[in-house]
Amino acid sequence: MERSSTDAAFGREQCCNDIGIYDFNPQANMTIPNLTFHHLGLAVKKPQPATTFVSALGYTVGETVFDPGQNVFLMLCTHETEPAIEIIWPSETKGPIDNLTTQHPSGIVYHICYETTNLDAVLAKFEEIGNRVVCVSPAKPAPLFGNRKVSFYSVMGIGLIEILS
Prior knowledge:
By secondary structure, the chain is an alpha+beta fold. About 15% of the residues lie in helices and about 45% in strands. The chain folds into 2 domains: about 30 residues; about 130 residues, Roll (2,3-Dihydroxybiphenyl 1,2-Dioxygenase, domain 1).
């Protein structure tokens, strides 16, 4: 259960949750420029159940693309009003989502993708606002996105993010 109270002396909101207490300064400039939401990444063992589901929700299912740099198959599903969903499934050989699909055989949303025109500025802003960010996969061409570069980062308190640049 989350509770909050305003600490007038410090102009901060103190929040308490199941993990612990942290301070949040609502006056701080927390805006990360040049970063916009792009899609959610859904890892599955097989694509058919996921494509059937998202199609029933009104999504347009894109073409299957093999990404040799990540050793996975990919499919981007788009909708007029809902967030895009990237469906990712393993190839026949070992790849980066094998453990996820083994541990979550029914599928799992495991990353959020953002798009930027200035990756260096975004990473500098993460550091400036105190986010602990660790690169887990450096930028490499992504066939699904016309060979634009994608990189993956673990962000403490957020999880895995992909940045399309």
